[in-house]
Amino acid sequence: MMTTLLRRTLLGAALLAPLVATAADKPLVMGFSQVGAESEWRSANTASVKAAARQAGITLKFADAQQKQENQVKAIRTFIAQKVDVIAFSPVVESGWDTVLKEARAARIPVILTDRAVNVSDPSLYVSFIGSDFVEEGRKAGRWLLERAAKTPGASLNIVELQGTVGSAPAIDRKKGFEEVIKANPKLQVIRSQSGEFTRAKGKEVMEAFLKAKDKKIDVLYAHNDDMAIGAIQAIEEAGLKPGKDITIISIDGVKGAFQAMLAGKLNVTIECNPLLGPQLMELARKVVAGQPVEKRITVIEGVFPAEVAAKELPNRKY
Asked: Residues 186-212: pLDDT tens digits?
């Protein structure tokens, strides 16, 4: 005969079972802070994250920082207060994250970096970084220019540079990688370099200023993203010059707008920076929350697309 204690134990287990199952079935909750919507690339990145979260059954709490670090810090603190399972964010700038990331660690919430890196005193403040190698993207741009310059040996080329957001990882690294490579040819000189803030409007504005300074002829434009390059193309045309011909244009991202500009003969090459990180991010988040080991640095594979391949590649572009 079943004892009273055993009956109570079995009854308690039966009542508890649905609660345990419910807890196990509870969807993973991710707090995600995005830089903003400053470019075609960023919009595609956001769409990829949102779609991947839906497909993975992950509840996504999304915050747009509008390119302001203070908005991201506020969003991360909100995610901590909401006790999300994991926090992911694409940092506006590299520095200034130690305090809020320590708060996340104190709350036992793991942090994943997407697209952009941070400069922190303790790398253990985040568990993993998934994104592009921005230095290598800059190197690819530099190598393409070296090869083009080699076709006219001895020629001097004056380069103007449209940098990304001041203090951001892609702006710092794309400049570093490009300069590292072009120094092999002393006749390639960056004569002006200024931030275009990764936006089309600012890229046009800065390029207009570059063109008005007529002390030196501009031979090459190196833009840290396609949107700034497209804005600069407008400025070049308004100045009565032919982009892609009078001024060689190199940019980074590989968005559809860049391929369309190449088809029109206005852009010479775009270096790919893949924004479709959503599926990899969701897979990574599940592993992190489950306590599984993950790589500290996950790099995506990307290519170089000169104008000659634009017509063939444009139909394949997903962003």
From this structure: 999 999 999 999 999 999 999 999 999
